[in-house]
Amino acid sequence: MKTAAKHLICSIVSLSTTAYAQNIKPGQYDYAITSEMFGMKVPINFEQRVTQKDIESN
Hints:
With 58 residues, the protein is an alpha+beta fold. It has one domain (2-57). It has two helices and two strands; from the N terminus they run H-E-E-H. Strands 1-2 form a two-stranded antiparallel sheet. It is elongated, with a radius of gyration of 13 Å. It starts with a helix and ends with a helix.
């Protein structure tokens, strides 16, 4: 159950990051999300590093 939540949230964040890539700046971005399913709260933390090369290749 926790793995499915992580995959879903990572997909959503990835898509939203791609959609706004034109406004993003190089750096490290940390995400902290709490998902609740069936009464269980699942904290999810992850980071994403964006380089100038990543921005230019988008």
